């Protein structure tokens, strides 16, 4: 559906769009005609759907009231808190594995053929020739699945057996993670995983807050600050939690990890205490406590926790090559049936023709060789082994050995940002004051300016006080003298603003928490620099505070109401925190109002993105230009500004702000309006530039992938500005390319207008937020995906784990191209499992992604070699191997057809028992399997010319065209071998089997040599070993060389095969079957060589 170019459509109610088609359907006449013409299908389908829904019915998720420490008071039965990643249980294992095998036409076909041999009238040859290969394939598959399943079971058991302390009336008792229930009060120690979703009641930290690590939930490595419920934190002792009667009302379980709504109510207080709960009072499962010990009450368990709701269940992945081979197998089966019908038809459908038809089907069953599955599975294992042994990509692990060819067919690569493209390590690079700029090599100048400015001032800082004490009215008038401020005072103000305007908390490992009273006495001990680490929800902020420490102004202490800075001379300056306005993706800025203790000055500091700050700061002529310069360098920029407030101004603001916070309607808008009244004519202090260091060789790797025709999408939970910065610095978006930032949208109309605006842009990268993406997909899914797929690069920011998986699924559905997802955190698992090929990086944030992935690598740069070299080889080799094994089956079936037609269309096998088994194994298996060592291009060449990869994605190595070529070759060779044997050996007719079989084996060995593009010494060994095996077996297998029931006991005459006539006639037949193909190959390479051969020559 093309986008409507007018607005008229939006006037209808949205529900009209859905009801129109249904309304039309319901008015149709549903009579007998309808039922016979397909109505029965509709009825059967709806019955099946209804049954499936009843069987799979999931319990509806509901809001709940949870009483503290009283699981027995819960009205509902909630799920167990166990983790379960297994695919099967003890009862479903065998049926499940068999279903996975026999849902493929290939395997089902072999099963039917093998079972038919139990019927005496259909029996052809020996049972073991059919059952042995099938049994081997199934045994190998079952053993492999059983090993994988055991590993999953052990991992789950380890997680479920972790012990926690549960708080009861009788004290603390140990409880297993899997036995935790809704309503339990659980104690979680520092560095311990949170076992279930909880509300944060108490902490050992005296400020009533703690930090948690969320890397396994949202992929971000920075710590998040969580605040305990005031009512329970204020209780004198932990035991008092049982002396109060309180409950938590929690909303129903949801996917969104960034929001929560609930209430805490204490009933036994007079009046009742009500406290609203938000996301900062929650502790989600799979996060880790980073500071202190916490006590929480469990509200969601097991399948209802945020982490499990955001994880999709693992699916069995099937490679595109396997699906293509499955289609070709069906075509072969059709050919086999047609050939059998022709044979019976030529006979004239006489006698028990139906039985003869089935016998012919079994006779020609070698058209589809069972060794195809065995060879391909062994080949896949060989490729996996080669990948893991490659010294150029050390530490690479292949966890799913069934899809290595997928690495050679990828069109879309969806990558995480934090920890995948970047190291998530910030480095302060630039400070710009408007007239002067400082880089990493001139930081010592800033340090000396700061030291001098604090040495020149007594602790009370009167010079700073005199400027900050002035009223804003005078401040705006004195904008002239502002220019005459010395560089030193401007640096001092800028560094002080950066040191104060943030959400960073210094954390001390030991002494401060132990003995709170003697903090002032132990100041030196507590504030030792070695013992301090900074924590915040943004790594940028931590780096800015670390930088102020490096130039002399150190943040030494902070709680919810105050913070302290230490000057270069060692003095402590204290500030009261009056208000904090946290960063939001809408406002793109954060602010803080502080009062300096020594002078009583009130200052409003603010920092934020240049787009948000440009309209807030006083007029200047340098900000926009410098922001652009820093962004081009790939730096993340922040604009810092300040405003001095008088006591009256602040009191007026506080009254309005408190009132706005209490309003019930449009609270957010009213609060924002009050804060905006302060954000006017602020004094611009400085512009900072911070670099997020990229992983090693990210730029050349992304360029390599782009040249290979792979489209790269970056899906991140990070902010829009940060994501755009990294996209530029990593060269995901080239410098010359435009970037279209999709505006925030919330309705169908807005989505329509924005998509039309985007449609008019050409060859530009797209940046879109998760919320806008959701709206687009709700109304214009097809149009959005169509437009996005035309972009050279796409960046989706603020993506939840579920959204990442949803984007992967969308690309698979709409483009039918192969997708690959790469990530390093627990939040990337859904995306990795949804993609056709999942790659996990073992990073700082744990091994969850690498364990869930199909391939695990240690660095992002290894993906280049993994795709260009191993992906190419795996796909090319498997395609050659698959087609050659089919050729091996088709050539012998052609010979059987010729033989049967000569012998009055009798359904008699040409080759008996062990000859057939030997043909598929001993005599030809090693040379054919040695194709897994073949390579058309040297690894260095594949990496030097990534453009070669584009050919692979078109799937030309295995298509109906190449398959038909092999069919024609098989028919020609089979016909010439059989007719040659019959024509040349008219007098010695009883030797036809020996002669034709010998020529067949030699032809197969020569055909392998013809197919090989790069020789390996093992290939030569395999050729001669197979020939040796055949010649040696002639002496032992002579009883098999009679022609079944026709020649009745005609055996091989050993003296005859050593005569010259035998040798030259076999050579002549072989030459006729192979020489034309060699000539054609030579001419093709001479006049129409493939692109890769031009390079290698």
From TrEMBL:
EC number from the UniProt entry: 7.6.2.1
Record membrane topology: Multi-pass membrane protein
Gene3D superfamilies: Calcium-transporting ATPase, cytoplasmic domain N, Calcium-transporting ATPase, cytoplasmic transduction domain A, HAD superfamily/HAD-like
Reaction(s) catalysed by this chain's protein: ATP + H2O + phospholipidSide 1 = ADP + phosphate + phospholipidSide 2
Biased composition (Acidic residues): 519-528
Protein origin, superkingdom: Eukaryota
Protein name per UniProt: Phospholipid-transporting ATPase
P-type ATPase A domain sequence ranges: 173-306
Transmembrane segment boundaries: 128-147, 331-351, 357-376, 885-907, 913-933, 963-983, 989-1010, 1017-1037, 1057-1080
Cofactor(s) annotated in UniProt: Mg(2+)
Intracellular or extracellular location(s): Golgi apparatus, trans-Golgi network membrane; Membrane
Primary localization: Golgi
Organism, as annotated: Gymnodraco acuticeps (Antarctic dragonfish)
Domain named P-type ATPase N-terminal: residues: 74-131
Binding site for Mg(2+): 416, 418, 824, 828
UniProt keyword terms in alphabetical order: ATP-binding, Golgi apparatus, Lipid transport, Magnesium, Membrane, Metal-binding, Nucleotide-binding, Translocase, Transmembrane, Transmembrane helix, Transport
Composition bias, Polar residues: 462-480
Annotated binding of ATP, by residue: 416-418, 541, 583, 607, 636, 716-718, 798, 804, 827-828
One family name in Pfam for this protein: Hydrolase
Catalytic residues, chain numbering: 416 (4-aspartylphosphate intermediate)
Record domain P-type ATPase C-terminal: where: 851-1089
GO biological process, one term: endocytosis
Gene Ontology MF terms in the entry: ATP binding; ATP hydrolysis activity; ATPase-coupled intramembrane lipid transporter activity; magnesium ion binding
